[in-house]
Amino acid sequence: MNYRTIITVIAGFVLIACGERNNMEFKVFETSESGKNLEEVSNFSASENHSKISVNLEVERQSIVGFGGAFTESSAFNLNQLSPENRLSVIEAYFSKSGANYSLTRTHMNSCDFSVSNYSYSPVEGDVNLEHFTIEEDLDDLIPMIKDAQSMSEDGFKIFASPWSAAPWMKDNNDWRAGRLKDEYYDTWALFFSKYASAYAEEGIDIWGFTVENEPHGNGGNWESMHFTPQEMTRFVNQHLGPRLEADGKGDLIILGYDQNRQGVQEWADVMYKDEASKQYYDGMALHWYESTYDYFPDELEYAYKAAPEMLLLQTEACVDNQVPEWKNDQWYWQKEATDWGYYWREEENKYLHPKYAPVNRYARDIIGCLNHWVQGWVDWNMVLDRQGGPNWAKNWCVAPVIVDVDNDEVYYTPMFYVLQHFSKFIRPEAKIVEVSKTDDNLMVTAAKNTDGSIAVVVFNEGEEARSFDLELNGQTASIAIEPQALQTIVIQTKSE
Fold it and tell me: How far from 177 is each of 165, 182, 215, 248, CA to CA, in Å?
């Protein structure tokens, strides 16, 4: 008889949830390798691996901005290939209160790798005043998806926009890929941001803010990109973008610098936050997760926070990249089978950062790790991709939480979709991350206090053995158990202040 069998046998004898040992009002939602997808659970078995988790509401840390994903042309295009019923069901799954209830989203300015083709809102060469600026390219797919999401969302959501590249005519290499913005077009490029915000506002979509440039280090010249050094970006923000937005009455729009992998944080923070003059127009720093498949770089996150505690720190892009999605195979998402670009192409001395990994585990570890190190928002990449991991003009196939078969009008909600809900659904904007202590190093834990007084405690057990714990809060105790390879959100009801 194996360990899991023993646990199953004793489950009927040792039921401790909602029993004598519990004096706390709570609900537990679990996603697990065993097949649970955000399923409410109430009966828990004691285990040999018993520990304690304590939540201290008196020690508050960062305030949450939100959780969500990105509106891309690829995602919107896929939705438009589905039946109206299935299209609406996906929008509802992401944005309704009964679904993920996304609160923070991203979109791209001009085309990106997850576009059907290359395009720019400034198509006329030499148009320095952007008299021919147009968002016509977004009217068929992207904007209808955003508007439908707005209609579905009761609480509303923030949206920030990121450019991958200016039109080639503004760049020193006259190409969509790589190259730098010519000095003579810095003013034009700043005007581009302002015109974009106005054009979207005319469509009923208010932009919350911008990242200055997606991945300013570039992407190896494989798809749209435009290079900035930290010094170049800071000069652009302080001398062009910030003043332009301010002059146009848009000074309240958020400006986030960097927007690439966490290993580069120190170099960028040192320049962006050097002094009051350098950071005058910045509102914070944006980060991606692609530097590693197992490390969330806590030291770098701490460095960014300590460099400017008053600034926002947002994770703005993450995905299972370089991977064709597995169709209706939940188990694959729990297994260490996924690879990323670094597994093949990273320099030898850094390949150790890119072992094969389980997608679910990577998401759970990263989000919890980020929340425990000052990150205020976490945004996934594409919301909806097809069975190939596209469409994608660059053939840079990736996985999304929702995969669709457009030929057969089918929708597959991967386990990653439910993992994201553990955070987006239960940790709401303006929640405060609070102090948590634990006695079991095999569990990852974070906790947040929402403005309605509810407490969300997220627990991740990456191990192969069940574990149980006493959850302590305000002198109350709940005895809970978590399956092997499982993620739980424990929602505790308290009175709001």
Answer: 8, 14, 12, 30
